[in-house]
Amino acid sequence: MAPSLLTTTGLLLLFSFASAQTRGDNHASCTLNDGFGMYCPTTCGVADYMLRYIPSVENDLDRMENDLETIANLTQESEDKVVYMKDSTTTAAQKNPYYKKSSDMLEDVLRFERTIVAQEDQIMELQNLISSNEQRMTELKQLSIQLAQQCSEPCKDEVEIQPTTGTDCQDIANKGATTSGLYFVKPATSPEQFLVYCEIDEFGRGFTVIQRRRDGSVDFNKDWIQYKNGFGYLSPDDTTEFWLGNEKIHLLTASLSGIPTVLRIELVDWDGNRRYADYTMFRLTPEADNYRLTYGYYLGGDAGDAFAGFDFGDDPSDRFFTSHNGMQFSTHDKDNDKYDGNCAQQDGSGWWMNRCHAAHLNGKYYQGGRYTEKDAGEYGFDNGIIWVTWHNRWYSLKETTMKLIPLSRLTAGGQQGGMKEFAGLGAS
Ligand SMILES: [Ca+2]
Hints:
The chain has about 425 residues and is of the alpha+beta class. It has two domains: about 110 residues, no CATH class; about 250 residues, Gamma Fibrinogen, chain A, domain 1 (Gamma Fibrinogen, Chain A, domain 1, Alpha-Beta Complex), CATH 3.90.215. The chain is built from nine helices and 14 strands. The N terminus and C terminus are likely disordered. The site of calcium ion has 5 residues, from loops. Its main location: secreted.
């Protein structure tokens, strides 16, 4: 039987995929150990799926074979019985002058013959099922081989990673890189390099992007570990959504150079309007302090200073309890907020929750923007992608970008902080 051979082949293929993806010595190959899951080779991912699928088909096949054997045994028993009964009938007819008993036996014989016919039909069906499954396994095996060939090093659908490296994207731009895309960075205090999307503009500014929302394709309702390590997908053409990860954001902002880091927030609403807000001396403290958000001051922007909190008119303390500077990070499984309940759980996100927020860029994605308490689900609180100094809390933004740049480079190109045009939010 083929299963053991197939399994062996499958394991070999699986092994070769794994080794093709995890190599870290070549910048042009995929790395799966950076917390971004399967962002890289979709084809290899399909192959893995197929290889996982084959053993279950083999199990089904084995089970059907057992069934078939059982039925074959039953059939044999029935046939033996018929023969025995035919013999008995003959014997009875010879021996018994009254003959009634033998007519009963004839009926039994007929009944058993009908059973045999029914079982033969069943056997036929099972045989068809087996051959169609065998056909399917052959197809899957061929597909696996094709995929294995496609994924043999270097994997053809892997993402393109630029060769320049640096401590952050500005460092990379300073080294002459002019293309936005994926780069490896290694901040001064980082134990290892990691992948980021660098947005490099015509003025030689290199923004390190730490968060991207654009179409709701990634669920941002994640736990502490996921927010720590990052989730979603990095893409070389800025087409995917992600959270870079609190640990990486901490390392990127724990600068030893003394140059303040600016957090630039760019927002797009459902009418295509774009606004931004800048915060300087932005830092995330280490995990031991729960990745607390700290910044020096609001540098400017036309989206307004939502991090300072907002007076919703519900209570005089609204602004105080919806400000974000100095807040620790919270997720549904790690409540560090200033609220009796659990803001992150109620709003389905990870964020620097207070009691709870006036800015909420990791919120739930609402197509079209406007939503209601009813749309917000179980808790009914405003849980969209919110920046209340621009749109109110029942309006969820369409796109967001959070990115870092040294303060000294922010105004490069002769522009001031209040520029109306900015690059990087792709056409949508
Ligand atoms: Ca709480």
